[in-house]
Design brief:
Blueprint (H helix, E strand, L loop, with lengths): L9 H18 L9 E6 L6 E4 L2 E4 L1 H12 L5 E8 L2 H10 L6 E5 L2 H14 L3 E7 L9 H11 L3 E8 H14 L13 H10 L4 E5 L9 E3 L2 E2 L13 E3 L3 H10 L11
Parallel strand pairs: 1-4, 1-6, 4-5, 6-7
Antiparallel strand pairs: 2-3, 7-9, 8-10, 8-11
Helix pairs in contact: 1-2, 4-5
């Protein structure tokens, strides 16, 4: 069986994605939630399993499905979209999740998947999209498609990205010094803040950023932002703080390479 993911920080990432999914899917049971349908999507779904130093850790598709079961939300119709550009990853994931009528596992590039999800939102005006973006690297991130989705349907999208700020900054440095031309994600950003965070919090969106983890040289962070029915408080005990708070701004400065902006990890 094909298994991916070997970072020591992978278990924390998967717990955070699963925890946020459970929180949101449970929150959607409220009588004040106005949408009839929620599509939960992961367009970098992978195999559904990670091997971290010999320990098998469930990936985000399995965490999302578990969050759905735990939420016991029968007030809203749910659909699940998992896609990956690797056919073998999709084939492995199909062995882990039983077939069901509201589940699709597709072999598809992330950019194409976002375009398809955008078309679905256009045709279904009472649908909210809960979207996980966990690319292998910044060059894989479908920035233009994500911007288009948020420009068109911002109130109807929760987006949960996970990415390495160090990788972004190093690639930008190489681009600027060497005159290298990058397509997509890296071709049109100036830094972590302007190119990534700003995209997620415009249109009045609210969200969180995870403060740096001690010892994480790649500076991975998760940046969930919400289009509707915002959570009442952040998860500061878990290191997730309001992105526009003082702690959030200091975290952004840190991820931009200003080590004076934040302590070296929590």
């Amino acid at each position: 069986m094909l298994i991916q993911g070997n970072s020591v920080h992978t278990p924390r990432k998967e717990l955070e994605i699963g925890g946020i999914a459970w929180m949101r899917l449970t929150q959607f049971k409220s009588e004040y939630f106005k949408y009839q349908e929620v599509v939960c999507a992961d367009v970098f779904c992978g195999t559904g399993r990670n091997d971290v130093q010999g320990e098998i850790v469930d990936g985000s598709p399995l965490r999302i499905m578990n969050a759905y079961r735990r939420s016991c939300n029968n007030n809203v119709n749910f659909k699940f979209w998992f896609s990956d550009i690797l056919p073998e990853a999709c084939a492995t994931l199909r062995t882990l999740i039983p077939p069901q009528s509201n589940l699709s596992i597709k072999t598809m590039a992330a950019a194409d998947a976002l375009n398809a999800l955008g078309n679905y939102l256009h045709k279904h005006p009472f649908t909210l999209l809960f979207l996980v973006l966990d690319p292998n690297g910044p060059k894989d991130f479908p920035r233009q498609e994500a911007i288009h989705l948020l420009n068109q349907y911002s109130p109807r999208i929760d987006i949960i990205p996970y990415i390495s700020a160090t990788t972004i900054n190093r690639c930008i440095g190489a681009r600027d010094k060497g005159g290298i031309t990058f397509k997509g994600w890296l071709g049109s950003i100036e830094n972590f803040d302007e190119g990534f965070v700003s995209m997620l919090v415009k249109h009045g969106r609210m969200g969180w950023i995870r403060e740096p983890i001690q010892g994480d040289k790649q500076h991975w962070t998760i940046l969930p932002t919400y289009g509707h029915f915002f959570p009442k408080s952040d998860w500061s005990k878990q290191g997730l703080v309001d992105v526009i708070s003082d702690r959030g701004r200091k975290a952004i400065e840190f991820y931009n390479g200003n080590m004076g902006g934040c302590n070296e990890g929590i």
